Amino acid sequence: MTHLSSMTDPRTAAPAGGRHFPALPPLSLYIHVPWCIRKCPYCDFNSHAVRSEGIPEEAYVDALLADLAAELDAVQGRRFHSLFLGGGTPSLFSEAAIARLLEGIDRLVPLDAETEITLEANPGTFEQARFTGFRRAGINRLSIGIQSFNNRALQRLGRVHNSDEALRAVGIARRAGFERLNLDLMFALPQQTNAEAMQDLQTAFDLAPDHISWYQLTLEPNTAFHHQPPPLPDDDAVWAMQSEGLERLHAEGYGRYEISAYAKPGQQSRHNLNYWRFGDYLGIGAGAHGKISFAANGRIERRTKRRHPQDYLRHRGTQALSGSVSLEDADLPLEFLMNALRLREGVSRALFSQHTGLPDSALAPVLAQVGGLGLLEDDSTRLCTTALGFDHLNSLLARLV
User: Fold this and answer.
1) Which listed residue, 95, 216, 357, 359, has the most CB atoms within 10 A of its CB?
2) Average pLDDT over residues 236-243
3) What is the pTM of this model?
């Protein structure tokens, strides 16, 4: 069981289960920008439509930097492996605000030249000067939320851009100097045909990004689509889309390294790989989450920040923290596997001990729940699904839970 430990000082708390980390995992930074032009009907993220008074970007950057400064004890002198600005729509911010944010982060935790710094962007926010400024400020990877190149599909999804704007956004990104580019696409959209799904992929291939996130639309609780479901393709149609799409991605040289992530060789998202390998990350911004390991006492904490933007802005620094959960030994095998098994090649068993501080034997009770079902590879050195297990990952994870 987990327990709420907001008042516990992780530097002095007693070791949890006598854990010891041979070395702390890589550390990333997630920065949440909660504003967007309009809330999409399928979105369950912490995002809020921009009001008439606009975005308080100067105050929000101040709050983000105060949030990070309050987390410096948790950093323990470590550097960031990657930064990710997500949302919402971070590309709504001005280039000056992004530059000031990155400069402030660099003063608090010096950034290395090779640090991956990703910005999520929506096509409806693209202007050449803005994105040239983002690149100059230090953003070196863009993730563009296109979702579809089909105008009817975009309208059904409630997107604020059209197909021409999506194509234009990629051109602007290239001219701004972005070599590392991810395109977000969805399939199994309302009333979508297989031909339309494959055309979306072909258009993406023609734009030659080094990374494609291609995932099925799902109806999440507390979304407009969940309350009023649109007509979606049936299971057979979805399976046909996925099967043909996988073949096409493979033929174009995009390796499937995670359940919905495909990359050219060497172009995997370092930030997301750190999540899936149970690395550490700080989360700053409204509703941001973090996971931190402490070498001195073997503690692993999950932290959460105040969710509503106005509440977050009113409670800066240490007051931005809304709660923390200390992970017990019994939590860690499942927490680790829920991330690691999303990777097509899995992870080494040694990584479990390195990132949890527990012996490999702690995995046995959890793995026993799916033993003999043909869902996991029988490998003494790696934790990895079979092809069957990867195709039915949700069912596999549900069994583990």
Assistant:
1) 357
2) 96
3) 0.93
